[in-house]
Amino acid sequence: ESTAFACRNTLCDRLIPGLYVIPSANSCLTWYGVMFIRSGPYSGGVFRLTMEIPEDFPNSLPPKVFMDPGLYHPAVHPSTHELNVHDVFPRWSRTANRLWQVLEYTHSIFQQISIKFPLNKDAAELYETNKDEFNKKASECADKCAADTLSSVYHDISDAHFIRFSPFEESVHSSALAALLTSTRNTSMKEQAAAAPQRGDGRPLGLSWVQMGSIKPCSRPETSLGPQPRPVKHKPPSSSS
């Protein structure tokens, strides 16, 4: 599990667009993810994934990835919903392969559709013979999966780290939305990126509207987009026996 957790930290440096993942609260060998697709036939879709990492990882077979039950795609089995990972990673090398590569491949299947190793032969045949009809089904699939993210079924899952969505509520979300829109209008993304903290290789760490040491959205002042001092951590008082 320690290796899987270290791989999770590495993933934070990859910046895969529209992808959000978090390990299960119960095991670092199960990861939950959500992908927001912004282009291609599945544009507008919101797709869930679950990645199962073998117990003997990284001396093991590749991890398994299971997609949304409603996903219609040549690379996803229509019954088990498993993504074809093994034909892309036939052997798992602990020195050459990383979990972020599996997630990057998972994200890529929505723009770069391949029918070389199909698990859904009907979808592969339709893509090859009638792309217009395939694109129509892919668009319908994207709409359905996006709508299903609000399903009450997902709220019944007990794992504390499972990613859940709720409908927009004016009283809860309007202030956060207004703050984000105001910040975007007043400061260009280029200016924000230039002011953002930098990694060791010079790439930006990314932008945040959360004040350091706080969990409240949009608590960070617009004039303070650059690096902030880390809060001082005080040792708890020792208890007397």
TrEMBL record:
SMART domains: UBCc. Residues 189-208, 215-241 are annotated as: Disordered. PROSITE patterns: UBC_2. SUPFAM superfamilies: UBC-like (SSF54495). Residues 231-241 have a biased composition (Basic residues). Residues 1-147 form the UBC core domain. InterPro entries: Ub_conjugating_enzyme (IPR050113), UBC (IPR000608), UBQ-conjugating_enzyme/RWD (IPR016135). This is Protein AKTIP. It comes from Lygus hesperus.
